[in-house]
Design brief:
The complex is a heterodimer of chains A (284) and B (219).
Chain A (H helix, E strand, L loop, with lengths): L12 H5 L4 H17 L10 H11 L6 E7 L5 H17 L3 E6 L2 H18 L7 E6 L3 H10 L1 H4 L26 E6 L4 H7 L8 E6 L4 H9 L5 E2 L2 H11 L5 H34 L1
Parallel strand pairs in A: 1-2, 1-4, 2-3, 4-5, 5-6
Helix pairs in contact in A: 2-11, 4-5, 4-10, 10-11
Chain B lengths: L1 H24 L7 H37 L5 H9 L10 H34 L14 H20 L9 H44 L5
Classes of the chains: A alpha/beta (284), B mainly alpha (219).
């Protein structure tokens, strides 16, 4: 809808509707994003089945169960992946499950450590006893194949270089058969590696995935086939999960802004198309 | 008092974040030197951070500590083998870089084979669905049957669109492919819709940071 340099000036209202200056659109977008920060809009939120399934999968893990949380994301997708990470960790720690966090991304390792430390404080989780952070690990395929057979051998040290073998949180954990669930929070297609190399190795293993919204549609066939137990889709999914675990985080606060922005974009698409149809009808 | 000090110490980082955010957002108006400066700042920061993490969490515990502290000298052979990658920059010894590349390709190929079987065979098995579905108590589940029927129609029509090996002369195949194309366009629309949602989330995050963390106008 932006004015193309070198084209003739718009003639009437219908032409102008198809050539609104992009800077005007940006200002409108900023207004609808910022406005709900000052005038909160709380819209009723219906939890999607994909989010509900992930929640139920975590609920079905027996107390003291073992969950690996992988956080393959960086600052670029912080808006979506950070509330997802926080929401899932809150649920895991609320349920008193043992948690091991790590990342295939350098930034993701630092982000997830900060988030897990904060949530652990809220739930009285002790590092090394109730949870551990294995740090950053490169080359996902090698790590996955290795952890299927030998978890302590794959993660010999935590992110600070401390040996993990004597940590209480690692006791009784030998291979993938001792793990109840894996939750991957990612901005990439790494879920395919988990499904291909790890999920099949333990039929009882629950694999949950928290992708950015862009990636969510392509993951649905895997949930349909049961290879993924549930999906938390972007910020919207995180907001739903926050609602399920009774907390208000960044995702819940952002839903008003995002809903308004969607309404604006839909209106602009309609306006642009009305202009196009009327102009075309006149010409013909 | 501790909280106050923590807050005071965090302010410079928040100010730096706010200035960088605003600097990058100047691109909305047009391409400019301020945007390019902050873009390079971000690239430099990300690269520097990655190097530090790599040294601290990989090279130190998996190379330096075993070799120099525990005497496991044999790991140096693996390290030397990895270093052969850098011969890719040499015209004369370029062939040496093919050794680790070949090793990795072989490893990846084997891994891909296993991954393919585990990923797609369950998908294939799941594609065969009953059209007449019953609930555990034996009654007819019409909704599940309709869902399965829709799934089968979509599966077959989309697959028929990808029959490129022969000319689609049959009217049935042509119409099926046409329907499959429409169905895919709906899917692409859904993907585009979620893309917009993702981008709005990123914008909200930055605005929340500016108005809450930096300006403290919102709680």
């Amino acid at each position: 809808m932006a004015t193309t340099p070198g084209t003739s000036a718009p003639r009437d209202i219908w032409d102008r509707l198809q050539a609104i200056d992009r800077r005007v659109l940006y200002v409108l977008l900023l207004v609808v994003i910022i406005l709900p920060l000052f005038v909160p809009i709380r819209l009723p939120m219906v939890t999607m089945p994909s989010t509900q399934k992930l929640y139920q999968a975590v609920e079905s893990i027996p107390e003291g169960g073992y969950v690996i949380v992988s956080t393959t994301w960086s600052g670029g997708t912080r808006a979506e992946n950070m509330p997802q990470t926080e929401a899932i960790l809150r649920h895991l720690m609320k349920r008193r499950l043992r948690v091991a966090v790590f990342s295939f991304d350098q930034q993701g390792s630092q982000f997830s450590y900060n988030i897990a430390s904060r949530v652990a404080r809220d739930f009285g989780y002790e590092y090394g006893k109730d949870w551990v952070h294995w740090g950053f690990r490169p080359v996902a395929g090698v790590v996955m194949k290795s952890l299927v057979r030998d978890i302590p051998g794959t993660f010999t040290t935590d992110r600070d270089g401390k040996p993990t073998k004597d940590m209480p949180v690692m006791q009784g954990i030998k291979d993938i058969k001792d793990v109840d669930a894996i939750v991957e929070i990612a901005a990439s297609g790494i879920y395919m590696d988990w499904i291909g190399l790890v999920v099949g190795a333990n039929p009882k293993l629950k694999f949950g995935f928290c992708p950015t919204a862009v990636m969510a549609p392509e993951t649905y066939p895997y949930m349909d086939s049961g290879q993924i137990v549930g999906i938390m889709e972007g910020m919207r999914g995180a907001a739903e999960y926050e609602q399920l675990v009774n907390t208000v985080g960044l995702a819940t606060k952002g839903m008003g802004s995002i809903s308004l922005a969607h309404v604006l974009i839909m209106l602009l698409i309609i306006v642009g198309n009305v202009g196009y149809i009327v102009t075309r009808a006149r010409r013909s | 008092m501790d909280a106050l000090w923590q807050d005071i110490l965090a302010r410079p980082a928040i100010y730096a974040g706010a200035i960088c955010t605003l600097g990058l957002m100047t691109l909305i108006y047009r391409e400019n030197a301020v945007y390019r400066f902050f873009e390079h700042v971000f690239i430099g920061l990300a690269a520097g951070f990655s190097i530090v993490v790599l040294i601290k969490e990989i090279l130190d515990p998996f190379l330096y500590q075993p070799v120099f502290k525990k005497g496991e000298w044999y790991w140096t052979f693996v390290f030397m083998f990895g270093l052969l990658f850098y011969f890719i920059h040499s015209r004369k010894y370029n062939w040496l870089s093919r050794l680790p590349i070949g090793f990795l390709m072989g490893f990846s190929a084997g891994q891909a084979f296993q991954g393919f079987a585990n990923t797609y065979l369950p998908q294939l098995a799941r594609s065969f669905r009953p059209l007449f579905v019953t609930t555990p108590d034996g009654s007819w589940d019409a909704a599940a049957g309709i869902n399965n029927l829709i799934f089968m129609i979509v599966l077959v029509t989309v697959m028929s669109y990808f029959f490129f090996s022969f000319e689609q002369k049959s009217r049935v195949i042509r119409n099926s492919a046409q329907f499959g194309r429409w169905v895919m366009m709906v899917a692409f629309g859904a993907i585009f819709g979620t893309t917009i949602m993702a981008r709005m989330a990123l914008l909200f995050d930055r605005m929340y940071f500016l108005f809450s963390d930096w300006l403290r106008l919102v709680r």
